[in-house]
Amino acid sequence: MSPTFKAALWMMGSIASFSSMAVAGRELASELDTFEIMMYRSLFGTLIVVFLAAVTGTWRQINTGNMPVHIIRNMAHFTGQNLWFYAVTVIPLAQVFALEFTSPLWVIVLSPFLLGERLTFMRGLAAVMGFVGILIVARPDMAGINAGVVTAASSAIFFALTIMFTKRLTRTQSITCILFYLTTMQLVFGIVAAGYDGDIALPSSQGLPFVMLIGAAGLMAHYCMTNALAIAPATVVVPIDFIRLPAIAVVGMLLYNEPIEIWVVLGALIIFAGNYLNIWSETRQRN
Contact, 115 vs 168, CB < 8 A? Predict the structure, then answer.
């Protein structure tokens, strides 16, 4: 089996996980708010990580090094994920995913300040293309700007921060350690945010499977993508990941009667082109 085919199989798992998480989040919106969804997601995620760490013997890899970076990284992810869960409940799923794909372009913009990386001409061009794509997805006449669009676009910025701080952590921390603090810290954040008013809703018997699905799918999506990137170059993985957009558009059409709008497709293609141009340029320079 070729490395590209193996990477494609891993990415199919990632695409299915991200899509199922979006559907589960929308189904839970009627009985849980985003803070409660994140709290329960982190609870099940913590149980999964602890179990896997015990089974694989990687528990000893968990340490308290770089704790300030862990805290900042997980606060950014917690904020971005809450904004994302809100967005999937109020705007078409395809629109959410299209705006989410701008995260790598925000990394380009922010990395000179946070990682000390150089902003090259090609990186700048990719970022400009991404912002043009955002405007098209949000409608050229701005008629489509609403709370859902703003939160989806904002979530991409916080996911970009998550990516950059994760990159810093991978220099000294294992994946088990990163995932442990990812789930446990966000469980604490979720408890505080969901329970500040003294009222935390319990999922119904119908909602519990969706809560469990979000907890498992959130970890599985990133696990599958990490394995794909370990097998194949980013120039192969990113185009496969972009299949998430037409896949979720079809899901939204079949489950929620959401129309597939030409502006979302056009803007997403420009965002993808910016992402791919940047990755192609970086890969070519290394070779």
Answer: yes
Is residue 65 helix, strand or coil?
Answer: coil
Query: What pTM value is reported for the model?
Result: 0.85
User: 211 vs 241, which has greater pLDDT?
Assistant: 211
Phi and psi torsions of 197, nearest 5°: -95, 5
Domain count along the chain: 1
CB 237 within 8 A of CB 225: yes
- Average pLDDT of the segment spanning 177-193: 93
User: What angle in degrees, to the nearest 10, is found between the helix axes of 147-169 and 93-100?
Assistant: 40
Q: In 77-138, at which residue ranges do the beta strands (DSSP E only) sit?
A: none
For the chain, what is the radius of gyration of the CA atoms? 19
Report the mean per-residue pLDDT for the chain. 86
Q: Which domain holds residue 94?
A: 3-286
Three-class SS state of 85: helix
